[in-house]
Design a protein that fits this description.
By secondary structure, the chain is an all-alpha fold. It has 28 helices and 4 strands. A hairpin with a 2-residue loop joins strand 3 and strand 4. The longest helix has about 50 residues. The protein is extended.
């Protein structure tokens, strides 16, 4: 129950009726508080500390009893049991039975656990269910939570494993062993942007699809539920999988492979978009550098052109070399010509040349594998040219690259695929389509269409069908969903409201600028167009709370690297605190040699998977804990001594 109450809230929630109680003294006060508490929470308080102080004072004033007498109210015995039975009878509740608990477990497992993943959420749902059914919440809450979770997990695993074929089951069990390294590879994220990374992800996607998982394996279950099983599998090692029963093991691996297949598909799309953008950017940069090296801007161009005209008119019959060169100079004339040639059309043509050359010599080998790995789709006929172009590329995926043109019978879509500036490079005078340039145009068109969500990728998560972003019942319950979004069904009303909001905002901005209350923001003219001008704020003053935080951190831990703070979370564990306390006292928790490992003392016989690596990691952790603990002192440097016992490592300060 919340601790802070406003006076109006106290009156509405904690006011007793005249016949609420006929007790006296501490019994009257305790009974009244328990009655109102049960009305609010649908359960009895576990101890006197659950009553808010404001509520105790308010109810005590009503029953004319000193608030301090509440300490005399007996929380055990026949009196409080009789009071509870009176309250239950007055409010129409009854005590929970074993049958009620079993019914709660069944309901929670079937209706709540598929959507709610936290114990707190399950408890809240259980309390609300008990209130609706007029049942006093059972005292064995943890048993109910554990029972419903176990029942749901069994049903969930049975549902998933029942959808797996024999081949998929065998493949997943082989994956769990981690023998061929594919388990670690499946968990790994893609590397840096590059062609090799894309090719590696294509291989990984092909192997994950070879597991043969159904596309609707987790259909009907929430994304959060599947994501929780995926996260659990990501943190598991082969030995952890082996420790679970086979249904749980298969469900974990299926969730991991199913989610990672969609994530790898998304990564492939991201790599494709990034590579196409990278190729285009590199081509533009190379052309710009070449043009910058070729073109030297001619200063005073107008005066020099005037000098040329004047010299030519003074002696029109003489040769150019004798008239123009003395007035301007041959090198200057060549610079003028080069600058004139470096126009937009020439620039685009050179970019096309460099882009096509770079794609054909290096990036083109990704196309056949990419088209076989992922499947592009669209729901609108307006974007069919891009899809038809992809079909054409797929039919020619196995045709040798030395075949430069498409067959004359092939109808290569041009409109909607090839930009106007590329047509002269793609289609020659006879209407023949050049393969390399056309493939590059198709990839650019696919990149733009994907980013606009005009086409989507089958089996992806982020780049999936946009129709799947809407609720399944959107068309049938459109009014309900629009009401939840607080938006009108009429598009005209929505546009009118948006326009009015924009007009109001602009009017407020204009008024603030006129009254000089806009913080220096104003409207200026740039190249004939109005532009917003926001002044540079400069270096801002450090907030006082941040200064206080810095001071508190420095006072407690001194000057340390903030990256070490996550290690301090482990200090919450009581074993670690006890261990550090003994070290501060100069003792060892196991009562042995102070040089003995803390890990070996706390968990004797524990063996790391990698013994040498485990000793080093444990030593680093221990040093970090001691350095972070406010009461710890750094141990004097000890002579290096290698401890060869399994599971042991040097204590903090020993290395």
């Amino acid at each position: 129950m919340r601790r802070e109450w406003e006076p109006e809230e106290l009156i509405a929630a904690w006011t007793l009726l005249d016949d609420d109680s006929n007790k006296s003294g501490a019994t009257r006060l305790g009974f009244g508080l328990m009655l109102k508490f049960f009305e609010l929470e649908a359960r009895f308080p576990r101890h006197v500390g659950e009553f808010p102080k404001a509520a105790v004072d308010y109810v005590a004033g009503q029953v004319k009893v000193e608030p301090g007498l509440l300490a005399d109210y007996q929380w055990t015995g026949s009196t409080i049991e009789y009071h509870r039975s009176q309250i239950r009878k007055a409010l129409g509740f009854h005590e929970s039975t074993r049958a009620d608990e079993d019914a709660l477990i069944e309901w929670l497992a079937s209706d709540i656990c598929p959507m709610v993943l936290t114990d707190e959420g399950i408890r809240a749902a259980m309390l609300l269910r008990c209130r609706n059914l007029k049942i006093e919440p059972p005292g064995r809450t943890e048993r109910i939570v554990r029972g419903c979770r176990a029942r749901f997990e069994r049903a969930f695993c049975e549902r998933v494993t029942g959808c797996l074929s024999a081949d998929s089951t065998a493949a997943l069990l082989e994956l769990a062993t981690g023998a061929d390294g594919f388990l670690a590879e499946l968990k790994a994220d893609p590397g840096r942007l590059g062609l090799e990374t894309l090719l590696e992800e294509i291989v990984k996607l092909r192997r994950s699809k070879a597991l043969g998982l159904p596309a609707d394996l987790f259909g009907g279950f929430s994304d959060k539920l599947v994501a929780s099983w995926r996260a659990r599998a990501m943190a598991s090692h082969p030995s952890d999988f082996a420790a679970n029963p086979e249904p749980v093991r298969l469900t974990l691996l299926a969730a991991l492979a199913w989610c990672r297949t969609a994530e790898i598909t998304d990564a492939l799309v991201d790599l494709l978009i990034g590579l196409v953008s990278k190729v285009n950017t590199k081509a533009e940069r190379r052309v710009e550098q070449a043009l910058y090296a070729e073109v030297k801007k001619v200063h005073g161009k107008t005066a020099k052109l005037y000098s040329i005209a004047e010299a030519f008119l003074a002696a029109p019959d003489k040769p150019v070399r004798q008239v123009v060169f003395p007035a301007v100079g041959e090198s200057t004339l060549r610079a003028l010509v080069a600058e004139a040639k470096a126009d937009a059309k020439t620039y685009r043509a050179r970019v096309r040349t460099v882009l096509t050359s770079s794609y054909s010599s290096y990036y083109r080998r990704m196309l056949p594998k990419l088209l076989t790995a992922i499947e592009f789709k669209c729901n609108n006929t307006a974007y069919r040219p891009v899809m038809d172009a992809l079909d054409l590329l797929g039919r020619y995926a196995d045709v040798p690259s030395k075949v430069r043109h498409y067959d004359g019978v092939e109808a290569a879509p041009i409109t909607g695929v090839v930009p106007d500036g590329w047509r002269e490079a793609v289609v020659d005078g006879d209407g023949v389509v050049e393969r390399v340039s056309y493939e590059l145009c198709v990839l650019i068109a696919v990149k733009d269409a994907l980013r606009r969500r005009e086409i989507y990728v089958d089996g992806a998560a982020r780049w999936r069908n946009p129709e799947e972003d809407l609720p399944a019942d959107f068309e049938d319950n459109r009014d309900v969903h629009y009401e939840n979004l607080r938006q009108p069904l009429d598009a005209g009303e929505f546009i009118a409201t948006l326009k009015e909001a924009m007009r109001t905002s602009m009017a407020d901005s204009a008024a603030a600028i006129t009254k000089k209350r806009s913080g220096g923001t104003k409207v200026k003219t740039y190249r004939g167009e109005p532009m917003w001008h926001v002044p540079d704020l400069g270096k801002l003053k450090t907030p006082e709370n941040l200064r206080a935080l810095h001071a508190a951190v420095a006072a407690r831990w001194g000057v340390i690297d903030l990256l070490d703070f996550p290690q301090g979370v482990r200090l919450r564990h009581p074993v670690h605190r006890r261990l550090l306390h003994h070290r501060h006292q100069g003792e060892h928790p196991a009562g042995g040699d102070p040089q003995t490992s803390a890990a070996g003392a706390v968990r004797p016989g524990h063996q790391h998977r990698d013994q040498a690596g485990g000793r080093r990691r444990q030593a680093r952790r221990e040093r970090g804990r001691v350095a972070l603990h406010p009461l710890s002192v750094r141990q004097p440097r000890q002579p290096a001594q290698r401890d060869r016992d399994v599971g042991e490592c040097h204590p903090a300060g020993a290395r």
